[in-house]
Specification:
about 55% helix; 5 strands; five-stranded parallel sheet; alpha/beta; Rossmann fold; about 210 residues; binds cytidine-5'-monophosphate; globular; single chain
């Protein structure tokens, strides 16, 4: 089974992906981490976010087994990730790895922006997770605070709006709901309600 989860920044898709994978005994790939790892490599090397050649080279050198989510989740890394991820050559260089991951038994849950539309158009189940920008900013601000790097919630909201615009407005694999994806709006749901709703969607699609 392949489950594709897409949605905007801080919609809860990562948490849902992890929980669904555990529930169904599938592997899980947070594809945002891949773009974040490329962004971090550029930042570490002092390269600009639109350096196509450096981005593709960084992608070729990635070792997803050694990703450190804590370092990759920083706000500055997400910001650069949302810029580098608009480079078509970079996206093309990352397709095979993601498809191979999805196709490896026993199957997988992948979450990102273009899983249901580009990476796994034939996924068994597609879920498009959203929540209002304000609720997403609030959740993200709580995460930053819990990680010891608190950020002003208004600044987080501004960043989320900017990223939404960039992710939905780019020409290469923009964020959008696949025609056959189920919409899950978690604005008024706590995490356990959202997980229950996601499992219900999977069960109804099997
Ligand atoms: O989901 P996350 O916030 O970690 O993703 C960071 C950035 O990587 C996003 O803003 C988006 O621009 C990019 N991304 C993407 N395609 C994916 C996953 C993430 O373009 N499948």
């Amino acid at each position: 089974m392949i489950i594709a989860i897409d949605g905007p920044a801080a919609s809860g898709k990562g948490t849902l992906g992890k929980k669904l994978a555990a529930h169904y005994g599938l592997r899980h790939l947070d594809t945002g981490l891949i773009y974040r790892a490329v962004a971090k490599a550029l930042l570490d090397d002092g390269r600009p976010a639109d350096d196509k050649t450096a981005a593709v080279a960084a992608a070729a050198a990635l070792d997803p087994a050694r990703f450190e989510p804590a370092a990759l989740k920083a706000q500055a890394v997400g910001e650069v990730a949302s810029v580098v991820s608009a480079i078509p050559e970079l996206r093309a260089a990352l397709v095979a790895f993601q498809r191979d991951f999805a196709a490896t038994p026993p199957g997988a849950v992948l979450d990102g922006r273009d899983i249901g539309t580009v990476i796994c158009p034939d996924a068994d189940v597609k879920i498009f997770v959203t929540a209002s920008p304000e609720v997403r900013a609030h959740r993200r601000a709580l995460e930053f605070a819990a990680s010891g790097a608190p950020m002003d919630e208004a600044a987080v909201l501004a960043d989320i709006r900017k990223r939404d615009e960039r992710d939905m407005g780019r020409a290469a694999a923009p964020l959008k709901q696949a025609a056959d994806a189920h919409l899950l709006d978690t604005t008024n749901m706590d995490i356990s309600t959202a997980i229950r709703a996601a499992i219900d969607i999977v069960e109804a699609s099997r």
